[in-house]
Amino acid sequence: MRLFQIDAFTDAPFAGNPAAVCLLDGAPVDDTWMQRVAAEMNLSETAFVDRRDADWSLRWFTPTVEIALCGHATLATAHVMLEEGILPAGGTARFHTRSGILSATQTGNLIELDFPATVTEPSSPPDGLIEALGMHPMHVARSKFDYLVELATEDDVRSLMPDFAMLRRLGVRGVIVTSRGATPGFDFVSRFFAPGSGIDEDPVTGSAHCALAPYWAPRLGKQQFVAYQASPRGGVLRVTLAGDRVLLAGRAVTVFRGELRV
């Protein structure tokens, strides 16, 4: 079974967000086996893709749980399909997922993902959030997946050293921390912490930007953004809010390809 490791939302290896991609090729596998492979890979997500009629099925697992939406591993999957000739150059792949039908299209040297927008609603900080972050937020909101916290400055976002044990007790997938961009060329910056899902800090999180785009659109008065996720590895995303959809565009590079013994 073919297995790949891809760095997503970057044009250079050892940056962006690494994801494993497993081409099932019709092999009969169960959920327990996929979870064990994801634990073995020990990356933030491992994607499992298989043919479904004219489309594809796609599932994502962290080392500990299956998740409902993942951007960088979808970008990585489309990248593998293009490199392996499964998807023709300039083509579009349609994926059946737990978050509905998603698509990935090659556009020039980028791959653009079409994802559902994730609406956030203003929220009171839950017990432990401010203490875990060690900073007082300007705004707190919540989506169906995560808390979203706006801090005053980009420096605040970059310097944050949260208490992961406290974040783990919040009962959500993760916490998005964001601010307006101060670095030229970036509209906003963010980081994403998900210790409750087995990932203390995710390097670059496409699904978080499904909430960040509708959050920042009215605040910045625009629909298109260049975003930077300020993790130690870092990653750049071109983000467009299109009604109830969010388009996420980025690049990816192959780090290795191998064979998984089933």
Description:
There is one protein chain. This protein has 262 residues and is α+β, with helices and mostly antiparallel strands. The protein contains six helices and 18 strands. It has an 18-stranded mixed β-sheet that branches. The radius of gyration is 18 Å and the shape is globular. The N and C termini lie close together (7 Å).
List the main descriptive attributes of the protein structure presented here.
42% strand, Diaminopimelate Epimerase, Chain A, domain 1, alpha+beta, 262 residues, 2 domains, 21% helix
Order of helices and strands: EEHEEEHEEEEHEEHHEEEHEEEE
- CATH class term of the largest domain: Alpha Beta
* Rg of Cα set: 18 Å
Please bin the fraction of helical residues: 10-25%
CATH superfamily of the largest domain: Diaminopimelate Epimerase, Chain A, domain 1
Q: What is the mean predicted local confidence, pLDDT?
A: 96
What structural class do the secondary elements suggest? alpha+beta
What's the total count of β strands?
Answer: 18
If you consult CATH, what is the topology of the largest domain? Diaminopimelate Epimerase, Chain A, domain 1
How many discrete structural domains? Answer: 2
Amino-to-carboxy terminus distance: 7 Å
Low-confidence sequence ranges: none
Q: Main beta sheet, described?
A: 18 strands, mixed
Report the sheet-strand fraction.
35-45%
The backbone outline, from C-alpha atoms, is globular
Number of helices: 6
**Secondary-structure arrangement, i.e. CATH architecture of the largest domain:** Roll
